[in-house]
Fold these 3 entries.
Entry 1:
Amino acid sequence: MSKLRGFKARRISIEDDPRQGRPKFQRTDENVQKITDLIKENPRTTLLELEQDTGISETTIGRIVPEDLKLKKTPAKFIPRFLTNEQKLCRLATCEDMMEMTRTDPEWKDKIITGDETWVYGYDPETKPQFAEWRDPKNPETRCCWSLFSENKGIVHHEYLPAGQTVIKEMYLGILRQKWTNGGWILHHDNARPHTAHLMTSFLAKNGTQILLQPPYFPDIAPNDFFLFPKLKAVLKGRHFDTRDDIIEKSPLALKSIPKEAYKNCFDNWEKRWRWCVEARGDYFEKF
């Protein structure tokens, strides 16, 4: 009933008539707590899923999450991209070079030590198509960065980086200086800044260490990406770690679960992948 019609009918109250529907004000402490609990339970939930679970409008949730909870959604996992022609040619040339090196010296792979870093999280769900999660920039989730080096006989070195720190060139150099100061081996790693810094290349050249660089977008042709990291995380998926210390204490058990012969099979498979990449003319040859 309009206010004019109400007054004509001698209505005194100016309050609206009761009606069904969604409350006008949904940004309450109770609703904020509901959304907080749901995001803690599943950091990868979407605004639409939150609306379906709570009955609160997506618009209101879209204000509560960044303004009240101070969260923003960021990618949690690397997702391969469509390759440009230049990137395909780079992958093709790299694989052809490594195949040629194998023909020249069938035993050269025995000299390779491959190194990389990966994040281990407090909780990594077993299956989830969405790989972005709500994070508080001031209070990041429980996780730590794990630096690993392996060869065709197994793991040769692994260590966790200090809390809140990613790999930097001084730290990476410290690991190499501590472990390998003699020549005669080949270092395989990607072209991340700490790996290709002048400080690093000078040290490796001084010690006669050959470098086998991995260009970008090579997850299907990098032993750590197609073998080691998936093996480790398959054991860790679905497990909850309350603190960073829990991760450091328990996750190395995943390394011990990998048999030594699996590393040799990995390096043999690596050689096959060079050929598959060449046959695919540098494109990805398997689905992710």
Note: The chain is about 45% helix and 15% strand.
Entry 2:
Amino acid sequence: MTPFPELQGRHALVTGGARGIGLACARALAGRGAAVTLLGRNIQTLEAARLSLAGEGITVGVAAADIAQAAEVAEAFETARAARGPIQILVNNAGQALSERFDRTSAQLWEQMLQVNLSGTFHCTQAALPDMLQGGWGRVINVASTAGLIGYAYVSAYCAAKHGVVGLTRALAQEVARKGITVNAVCPGYTETDIVREAVDNIMKKTGMDEAAARARLAERNPQGRLVSAAEVADTVAWLALPASASVNGQAIAVDGGEAAA
């Protein structure tokens, strides 16, 4: 692989990096020259992802942490920093979506959605930002969701958390605008990931639909009539990491075929 010069020598850390959008982001950033660290909860899954990328000629580091735990995040970021230098690009991709009718949503489910999707983004950004401030350059890219822009029934806790991520993005972007750092969110629609596969299983269980019909129900929300690919989301993330995107700050960019524009 011949890396592009734009991100040569930049250290990018991707949370939830072992699969789906996170793994695609790692591939896209490495392809543009970044030194990449994958972060996730399960070291075995991370090692499997590392070996998979190695088979493609991509070398990455791994670090394990539960992003909902600030102490674990701080330790994992220090491990990544020691191996590959200051963290200059942070992709807050780790997330989880659980579905439940609002009146049946337990306090535990509510807190879990906030901890994983919103507080995790907070912890990781706080851990990475000092490197960016010291270096006078940085990119924070939050993988939110169209659920951070519009509402969806039966995922109120997830929507609340992702709206929070978009709000955090916009607020922090204002704080660091004069410091060489940009903060943006990418908001995918239904994307070919484990979360969508779980949604398909849930639809099948509750409606009796077969897999093809359940997938079609999700795809029909996209005006293009299809699911988004992880690579499409990753290419948007990688573009936001480039020096050429320096004037793009505080934005929530939908990658959804036009769903949020309706």
Note: The beta strands are 11-15, 35-40, 60-64, 89-92, 138-143, 181-188, 252-255.
Entry 3:
Amino acid sequence: MSSIAFIGLGNMGAPMALNLLKAGHAVTVFDLVPAAVKTLTDAGARAAASADAAVAGVEVVITMLPASRHVEGLYLEHDLLGKIATGTLVIDCSTIAPDAARKVAAAAEARGIPMIDAPVSGGTGGAAAGTLTFIVGGPEQALARARPVLENMGKNIFHAGAAGAGQVAKICNNMLLGILMAGTSEALALGVANDLDPKVLSDIIAKSSGRNWATELYNPWPGVMEHAPASKGYAGGFGVDLMLKDLGLAAEAALDSRASIPLGELARNLYALHSKGGSGRLDFSSIVNLYADDASR
């Protein structure tokens, strides 16, 4: 078992840290929200007064932060790397811009600190169940060290390539997810507008050529799937503003590489419109309400 510092105990970070505790690791936690820290200390974690204190003397440092500016701010501007002992493994599970991941990884390498970017897929449900997918960028040797720790939080681990590659793959995946959810919502709304039962239509699509993750596991129409956020007022899950952030990262990556993403840009505009309408904190499947005003009633 390892001694681990876990920084960032939000909707994803907290259940991930809990799974590390359940696996028997010694976990020290830090977050700016005291209630989040208490949840972990109640489960057996040790609280640190600061991020600097959290990383003192540990074998592994894991961060799960909201955006690129937070990751760069912590590791570079605050210089957390300067407080981490040489040889300590660093795993950043945040979803950030690939260039930001490469910048921090290069600074870590210069200090003799092995680092991987390991953004996740699977949502809050996967984080709680320990079934996340880790999409890793960085040296193979660092991934080999990280694998036993990652396996306590997820069931799928992919090595996408060098530093930043994990972020690129995650952005591609989430761009497609946003497109699929918007398209599925549009199709269901069209069917309901023409007097079809949304569950019957969803069953048809799930067994036909339009089948996708949304129709099979995360249906956006209320009442179709009991455990989906759509049937719980779109509470929890993966927020609209988080999807909007990831679609923005895809747009930035497309500009940098001169790639064309017309559907990705359209999806970004749809989620931006939805967020501005006051739905930013709802699950991203609530995009269906752009097409059907009565979907959530």
Note: The two ends are 49 Å apart (CA to CA).
